[in-house]
Design brief:
Length: 141
């Protein structure tokens, strides 16, 4: 009987390790975004657009950037808020020309990660003409 239990142990360990690897991989998510004025709250009439990619890693690190066209942005942020609602800034983005980037090493808190998974984070770009935000996109996992 001991021999039977011992022969199952390596298989059980391998299965557990495989499941752990799969669950970690499942947490890593790439999120493409396309920013428009129509997604702002309230909607903004603008020809400005933006696009980019964000990635959330298994350790809650968030990375990524957006590039804009047709807007002289004054700031960009990731906010907590559902589609159709405004919310607080959780991550200020760093500007370089028409590109805004998540600062290296930024991590989402457990609450922010849950909000991300629920689709309740968004990115937007602010301008002098639209201080509350000119273009916006939800981060949809």
């Amino acid at each position: 009987m001991k021999q039977h239990s011992l022969s199952r142990a390596p298989r059980m360990l391998m299965t557990a390790l495989a499941l752990a690897a799969l669950s970690s991989a499942a947490l890593a998510v790439d999120v493409p975004v396309s920013l428009t004025g129509e997604q702002e709250v309230p909607p903004v009439k603008t020809s400005a657009t933006g696009s980019g990619m964000f990635a959330v890693a298994a350790d809650n690190t968030i990375a990524g950037s957006i590039s804009t066209k047709g807007v002289t942005g004054t700031a960009a942020h990731i906010h907590e808020g559902a589609a159709g609602k405004n919310g607080p800034v959780i991550i200020p983005l760093t500007k370089s020309g028409d590109t805004y980037t998540v600062p290296a090493g930024t991590k989402l808190s457990a609450t922010q990660l849950n909000e991300f998974k629920a689709g309740n984070l968004y990115v937007n770009v602010h301008s002098d003409a639209n201080k509350g935000g000119e273009i916006r996109a939800q981060l949809k996992p």
